[in-house]
Q: What sequence folds into this?
């Protein structure tokens, strides 16, 4: 009896070890990596039409689906979302127009309401891995980012290549190209200057937004948005896979991380590295050197089981360190936090670091999970804080 139990236990362990070895082998291939990192095959909106936004709780023509073309020939499926008060004031005219996917968005009233209003503001939205523009908590998130001024704050969101109805296959450079195409459309077609744009990004979207912001800050003249909100970010892919657990319980590479030599060897096979901590530091340093105003808010919930909240202090330190000519050690920053961090009780903590040109804010919530947080008032507050800082007259 005991021998049989030991035998079956040994077989079970060997099977698990064998399957894990197969997983590690698959993770060294770029195709499998792509599906693991981006989860673009998981739609989560299979039984609804993304060209009928009304099925996701919007009013007729409050959302306009349209295409944005990238420089390398891909077609991105995008949504423009009107703020609810602006929609209410223009409801008869908006509802009289045809609904659904629009090939020429510039011909629509919604476009003119964005382009022709000098007081219009835009939240440029970068969603996370998996799903589409309409998946999960993203729809409540669109309402949260515009809630601070429901008559003026428009939202533009889009699916990266390979996601939803967008063409192509995802890759690091590909997603950066997508974001640059969207920024180009916003600034040169819709005519919205950077000073009236706030970037909101969550999860994987934070890596995309940081890469693009870093790129634009280095242009001549530099392009710097009114502010950037990063929710549930990660430091880089290597750090992410070392801590990531499927559904918060099943580790992928954390067992391997216990063997530094093996984990380091596997890192060589990572195709898309998304070095957000380094890019964020370079973005801050570039703006400081250019004497360009910039604003960052990094938000994370402690009960985030997808991306551990400990990634946010890492990013915060890299940003703060880059803001100072002589740098700031992690120990010095922790001491500063102990002195100045605001304890908000069950709502978490907040810490703000200011320089002559920049404001870098870290907000750690006690609760909010990975996605639910996107509909919280803290998101509305972060967006409005940026718009008001860029223009103190912008108020409800």
A:
């Amino acid at each position: 009896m005991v021998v049989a139990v030991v035998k079956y236990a040994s077989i079970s362990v060997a099977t698990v070890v064998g399957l894990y070895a197969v997983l590690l082998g698959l993770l060294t291939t770029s195709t499998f990596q792509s599906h693991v990192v981006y989860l673009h095959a998981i739609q989560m909106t299979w039984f609804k039409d993304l060209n009928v936004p009304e099925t996701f709780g919007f009013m007729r023509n409050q959302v306009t689906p349209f295409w944005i073309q990238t420089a390398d020939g891909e077609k991105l499926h995008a949504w423009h979302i009107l703020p609810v008060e602006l929609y209410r004031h223009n409801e008869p005219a908006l509802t009289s127009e045809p609904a659904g996917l629009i090939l020429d968005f510039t011909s629509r009233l919604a476009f003119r309401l964005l382009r022709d209003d000098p007081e219009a503001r835009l939240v440029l939205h970068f969603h996370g891995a998996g799903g589409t523009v309409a998946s999960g908590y993203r729809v409540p998130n669109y309402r949260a980012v515009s809630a601070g001024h429901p008559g003026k704050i428009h939202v533009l969101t889009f699916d990266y290549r390979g996601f939803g109805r967008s063409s192509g296959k995802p890759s690091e450079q590909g997603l950066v190209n997508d974001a640059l195409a969207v920024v180009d459309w916003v600034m040169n077609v819709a005519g919205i200057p950077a000073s009236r744009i706030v970037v909101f990004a969550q999860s994987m979207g934070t890596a995309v937004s940081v890469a693009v912001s870093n790129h634009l800050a280095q242009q001549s003249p530099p392009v710097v948005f009114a502010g950037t909100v990063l929710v549930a970010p990660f430091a880089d892919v290597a750090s992410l896979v070392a801590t990531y657990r499927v559904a918060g319980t099943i580790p992928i590479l954390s067992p391997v991380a216990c063997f530094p030599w093996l984990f380091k060897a596997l890192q060589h096979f990572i195709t898309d590295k998304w070095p957000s901590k380094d890019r964020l530091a370079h973005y801050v340093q570039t703006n400081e050197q250019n004497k360009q105003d910039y604003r960052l808010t990094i938000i994370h919930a402690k009960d985030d089981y997808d991306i551990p909240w400990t990634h946010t202090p890492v990013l915060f330190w890299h940003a703060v360190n880059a803001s100072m000519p002589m740098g700031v050690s992690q120990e010095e920053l922790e001491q500063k936090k102990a002195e100045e961090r605001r304890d908000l009780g069950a709502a978490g903590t907040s810490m703000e670091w200011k320089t002559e040109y920049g404001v870098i804010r870290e907000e750690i919530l006690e609760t909010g999970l990975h996605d639910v947080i996107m509909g919280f008032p803290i998101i509305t507050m972060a967006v409005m804080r940026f718009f008001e800082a860029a223009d103190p007259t912008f108020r409800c």
Remarks:
- The chain has two domains: 1-38+253-273, 42-236+274-390.
